[in-house]
Fold:
Amino acid sequence: MWDIIINSLFLVIPAYSANFFPVLLKGEKPIDFGKKFIDKEYILGKGKTFEGTIGGTLFGMFIGTILIYVYPILNPYYLVTFGTNMYHHNFVTIFLISFGAILGDIIGSFIKRRFGIKRGESAPLLDQLDFLVVSLMLVSLVSEIKLSWVVFLIIITPIFHLTSNLVAFILKLKNRPW
Ligand code: CTP
Ligand code: MG
Structure:
């Protein structure tokens, strides 16, 4: 069980980082250029900006780079405990997982707008899992991801996500606690 927890968290930290960072940037240039879709609703809405998209991807990669450098320090302990190597990131996986997180969140917003759910209104499960699913899909193209990690992450991510949004709300970074 501990191997599942350690590997899946090590894998997903850049995605969480990429997903959380945009809220701090308070970006102003929407990537849909404020345009509406055929349903006369915003394509994505003002919550998906260039600043957040680029900044989030870069921040996820920055945290991922730290993970690449701490790996040689952590892995020997993992190896003696579990008898195998820990999951290791490289520059391709940290890009795919960070960009995937941002892309998944954008796809989530697109879906919300099509259902008439306004920016910032909640869409339970979609809000918490959109970034994770796309991020894991992209990284699984280039590295081996275990099903048990995916299951674990799908269970814990909504809990993490709701807690971090609550903290952002208390710090007045978000208008709503979700
Ligand atoms: N953000 C951004 N660019 C992104 C993603 C997020 O600038 N690509 C910023 C926006 O300021 C956004 C905040 O991070 O309001 C929180 O993101 P999120 O909860 O995903 O957006 P919502 O405002 O809830 O919008 P939506 O309903 O479309 O999810
Ligand atoms: Mg949201």
Q: What stands out?
A: The pocket of cytidine-5'-triphosphate (ligand 1) is lined by residues 22-23, 25, 27, 45, 47-49, 51-53, 56, 102, 105-106, 109, 112, 119-120 (CB under 6 Å). The helical segments are 2-20, 22-25, 50-82, 91-114, 126-139, 147-170.
